[in-house]
Write a structure and sequence with these properties.
about 400 residues, alpha+beta, Butyryl-Coa Dehydrogenase, subunit A, domain 1, Butyryl-CoA Dehydrogenase, subunit A, domain 2, 12 helices, binds flavin-adenine dinucleotide
């Protein structure tokens, strides 16, 4: 049990970090819908956008000041990502360094922090690849097959990952691999370890990447490890405890992605409301029809409720209290709220929603991802059912 009195943690009643939100919104104004549409067409990485965010320091929000960051809590990072999505941009190109940061900060050695964090803060080093999902085991993470075996001074890695986003745009990868065969472990979550791999040295020397042609411009890849030799000091924390470390990163990831979903929901609701007020058919604004107005109102209420859960999850996480339940619910409710708002917006725009220049269909495709990744809804229902409510395990 945690020693933290969770009842004493105060929840923000209004969106926090107003100055950060304003500054990020100003920065996003330089990256309008045409910018993202062009990248979509060219299947290209938003290099300029990521560089601007890095130079402004926002991407280093969670890095402690002693390593060149601003040492802010997760709620501040959530405000950055929410605003990016609210302004019609997409943070998926660069959000990974925020949610992997917890593992490095909490469990990394002082030498690893000194070696990597200042470079990540300045943008000279990119920590954007998070290698967990595998093609044959999917959501069943504890069964993953990528092996890292002790070999002289280091480890040799063999296996495969899939959907490792931004791998071509990253210098470092946080990798979860099995170090002790599952059959030799008491619990299936034992025997896995986390490694911080320098991809610059590894590419072409046992590490191969292949881009996946996906429905959204997400720069996501298949990753192949073929006798990749890595040094012993790539290990983060203790060998065999990696799954526990990653769970903490996953809670951060769920909260941050939930914040992005809230931003998406706000984007869609603003667009839907504006259009419903402007567009006149049958001699009156379409928003005067209850069939248009009520779904917008319902989606608004859902987004407001989800936003409260995201704030609660971030407050618990920042207080060091157990955040798994709230983080999972935040992700679930926010992803549903953003998808509801996306669907409503598509409908409100009628045929024009399908014209790319209106900027709705791209966001609609992007919002769909969060029904499935980084954790699918069924897995959250299973977590709540089995770990929170005490229902029987189904797997
Ligand atoms: C664009 C994109 C980017 C991604 N980026 C990353 C990344 O950077 N790093 C990374 O590690 N992963 C990443 N992922 C992977 C993502 O986390 C997984 O796709 C997701 O967790 C689902 O796993 P899966 O695709 O293997 O689906 P599966 O595990 O095969 O599941 C398929 C469906 O079956 C359901 N299901 C499975 N088992 C059960 C059960 N027991 N009960 C009920 N329903 C069940 C699931 O809910 C899902 O709907 C990304 C995925 C996408 C699409």
């Amino acid at each position: 049990m945690s020693h933290i009195d969770t009842a004493a943690i105060t929840m923000p009643t209004a969106p926090q970090w107003a100055e950060i939100r304003e500054a990020v919104a100003r920065l996003c104004d330089d990256f309008p819908d045409e910018y993202w549409r062009r990248l979509d067409r060219e299947d290209a990485y938003p290099k300029d956008f990521v560089e601007t965010l890095t130079e402004s320091g926002f991407l280093a929000a969670l890095i402690p000041e002693q390593y060149g960051g601003s040492g802010l809590p997760l709620s501040a990072a959530a405000a950055v990502l929410e605003t990016i999505h609210d302004r019609g941009c997409n943070a998926a190109a660069c959000h990974a360094q925020m949610y992997t940061m917890g593992t490095v900060l909490k469990h990394g050695s002082e030498a690893q922090k000194e070696r990597y964090l200042p470079g990540i803060a300045t943008g000279d080093l990119r920590l954007q690849a998070f290698g967990v999902t595998e093609p044959t085991t999917g959501s069943d993470t504890t069964q993953l097959k990528t092996r890292a075996e002790r070999n002289g001074d280091g480890y040799v890695v063999n296996g495969q990952k899939v959907w490792t986003s931004r791998a071509f745009e990253s210098d470092l990868m946080l990798l979860l691999a099995r170090t002790t065969p599952a059959a030799e472990c008491k619990k299936r979550s034992d025997g896995m370890s986390v490694f911080l791999i320098d991809m610059r040295e590894a590419l072409g020397n046992g590490l191969t990447l292949r881009k996946i042609d996906a429905m959204i411009n997400h720069n996501t890849c298949e990753v192949f490890f073929d006798n990749l030799q890595i040094p012993a000091d790539a290990l983060v924390g203790e060998e065999g405890r990696g799954f526990r470390y990653i769970v903490d990163s996953m809670n951060a990831e769920r909260i941050l992605i939930a914040a992005e979903c809230i931003g998406d929901a706000k984007f869609f609701l603003r667009k839907a409301t504006e259009y419903a007020n402007e567009r006149e058919v049958f001699g009156r604004p379409i928003g005067a029809n209850q069939g248009i107005q009520f779904p917008i109102a319902k989606a608004y209420a859902a987004a407001q409720a989800a936003e409260l859960m995201v704030a609660k999850a971030a407050a618990l996480f920042d207080a060091g209290a157990p955040a798994g339940e709230a983080a999972n619910m935040a992700k679930l409710l926010a992803a549903d709220a953003s998808w509801e708002a996306a669907e409503v917006c598509m409908q409100v725009y009628g045929g024009f929603a399908f014209a790319r220049e209106y900027g709705i269909e791209r966001k609609w495709r992007e919002a769909r991802l969060y029904q499935t990744a980084p954790i699918s809804k069924n897995m959250i229902y299973a977590y709540l059912g089995q770990h929170v409510l005490g229902l029987p395990r189904s797997y």
